[in-house]
Amino acid sequence: MLRKLSGSLRRRLALILLPILLALLLASAAVQYLLAVRPMQREFDRAMNDVAVALAEHFVVDDTGDTGFQLSDEAAALLDADALDYNWYAAFNERFERIAGESGLLWPGNVVKRGEPYYFDAQVNERPVRAVAILKACGALDCGVVLAATLRKRGRLIRDMQLSALVPVALVGSVAFALVWFGLGSGLRPLVRLSREIERRSPRELSPVKLRDAPDEVQPLVTAVNRLMQQLGEANQAQQAFLATAAHQLRTPLAGLQSRIELAQLETKDPESRGRLGEIHESAVRSARLAVQLLSLARAEPGASSTDAHVPTDLAKLAGELVNEWVPRAIEGGIDLGFELGTAPLNGSPLLLREAMANLLHNALEYVPRGGCVTLRTGADATQVWLEVEDDGPGIPPEQRGRVLERFARLPDSPGGGSGLGLAIVREIVEGHQGRLILGAGADGRGLRVRIEIGQVNTAAL
Asked: Which residue among 1, 68, 349, 449 sits deepest, i.e. has the most Cβ atoms within 10 Å of its Cβ?
């Protein structure tokens, strides 16, 4: 079935679509993160620049033109008031010599332009920092301030942004996964319906498959299946027509041959000649039975276009009709043939069911030795009707019971002159009635019990 997919088709499509979907979600999260982080970094930088500009206001130039830097205790306390980050500053005179602040901060060089803050990354006391440098007019020359801060607040905010970007991705991804999975299931439902439609069919049903509301992509498959059904039906009909014609053409001359042999036996007085004619007659009888079996096989095969419609019938009634035919044969062979017939109503083909019984009785009488016992039973319960033919003959070894259901299969060194078609015909007939054929040991483990179970009970007749 489609659910088992040498990898399932649903799983394969999911494995193709979901990585693409996941990549798109991650890309979206990355873009969202970058679009949020860059403005955040700019805001932090702008805040540092405001503080640096405020620090630059503390430069003083004395009467001699020397530049100094005087930071009040209150301003210094504000720099130290940050609970998360360390803040350092350094003030540089017009010769860009440090005159105040952290000794680990260096002037970045000529890259700093007046009126334009210069941002850069550095290290102070082996700690990574973000720094800004600005120029301030100190008399005729410029002096400068560098402000640096550690990255704890930035890092914490970045982690919060990463989390806020990934959580929606996880939620949307989960919902998208479920939607894709169930969407694929919904899209593949026509294939599942097609599979179930074919599985429900019996081997005889080769009519076109009708799948309503099938999408355009499934229609070629439905068309191909219907074309195959048509070709199988035509091939079956051709095969059955050939078998039926061949069997019919054989049966008529064989019947004439039997009559002539019987006439010759009556006219011949020589015992040796009569014995040889008897052997020829026996071979002709077997050949005639083979022709009849081939006809039965043609009717019973899947796809048969026979007129053997399923109608209300009763296995007990059909078995009763066989009494006059088979009791004389059993008496001739010295076999006790018994019938235990309980009502077994069903909808089936009387012709084919009667043929199945006849084949089972023929096999039993063929292989049970003189003095043996054969019993045919029928019955029914609320769910099924059943038929049994049990004998106390040589039986069939358990390991051979599957093989004897094949066409022309016979056990090694088996007595009798059968063709090996009897049980194969019975199996085809039982399968055509959607039943089961069970081979087991007879009473006390002796002989063979063949049981047919068919679920098409005609409950109205019970």
From this structure: 349
Which of 177, 198, 219 finishes a domain?
198
User: Contact at 8 Å (CB) between 2 and 12?
Assistant: no
Structure tokens at 284: 């002709």
**How would you classify residue 413: left for phi > 0, otherwise alpha for psi between -120 and 50, otherwise beta?**
left
CA contacts within 13 A on the Cβ side of 433: 34
Please indicate, yes or no, whether the overall pTM of this predicted structure exceeds 0.70. no
| Tokens standing for residue 159 | 């982690």
**Which run of H or of E encompasses 435?**
strand 435-440
Do 147 and 112 lie in one domain? The reply is yes
Please count the residues of the chain: 462
Per-residue pLDDT tens over the stretch 139-183: 778 899 999 999 998 888 888 877 777 777 778 778 887 887 787
- Closest to 419 in 3D by CA, of 287, 314, 325: 287
148 and 209 belong to one structural domain: no
Q: Is 206 found in the same domain as 194?
A: no
How many structural domains does the chain have? 3
**What is the extent of the structural domain holding 397?**
311-461
